[in-house]
Amino acid sequence: MTGYNKPLPHIAGQAQEFWQGCKRHELLIQRCTDCGTYRHYPRPMCPNCGSWNAEWARVNGKGTVYTYVIAVQPFHPGFAAEAPYATVIVELSEGVRLMSNVVDCPPDDLYIGMPVEVVFDDVTDEVTLPRFRKAA
Ligand code: ZN
User: What pTM did the predictor assign?
Assistant: First the structure.
């Protein structure tokens, strides 16, 4: 365990496979095996065709910044030293969106449509978070 002092995900249920993939530095997204639609967050039924059949697909983690918000006031003591910081919604090339951060990028340099790619941040012995960095 490190000195990581921010909230951690509750790893349970359908999301376990996603987090286990992150720990291996693999980004896994659920995909319907009947219609091929990707979905995230993990859930049992396809929002497109209603199928209960799905698989976990390893994706390349490339996408763009869909939107973001800059927090000037930290909403948790663990983020105080980083304020102002940005919380970002990334849209992967598969069409699904994840909430994350863009590392090594001051909030003022962010823009909607910015190309990004996933990086993995081993924040504790148990938890690895998918984050993003600016892509070429
Ligand atoms: Zn489907």
Answer: 0.92
Q: Ligand 1 centroid vs 26 CA: distance in angstroms?
A: 23
With 0-12 CB in 10 A as exposed, 13-18 as middle and 19+ as buried, what is 44?
Answer: exposed
Beta-carbon count within 10 A of 65 CB: 22
Ion ligand 1, residue ranges at CB < 5 A? 32, 34-35, 37, 46, 48-49, 51
Residue located via tokens 């319907």: 32
Residues in the chain, pLDDT under 50: 1
R_g over Cα of the chain: 16
Q: How far is the CA of 63 from the centre of ligand 1 (A)?
A: 22
Give the distance (Å) from ligand 1 centre to CA of residue 14. 17
- How do residues 5-17 score in pLDDT, each as one tens digit? 999 999 999 999 9
DSSP conformation class of 102: B
CB contact at 8 A, 17 and 56: yes
Q: Which residue(s) pair with 109 in the sheet?
A: none
The whole-number pLDDT of residue 2 equals 52
Question: How far is ligand 1, taken at its centre, from the CA of residue 104, in Å?
Answer: 37
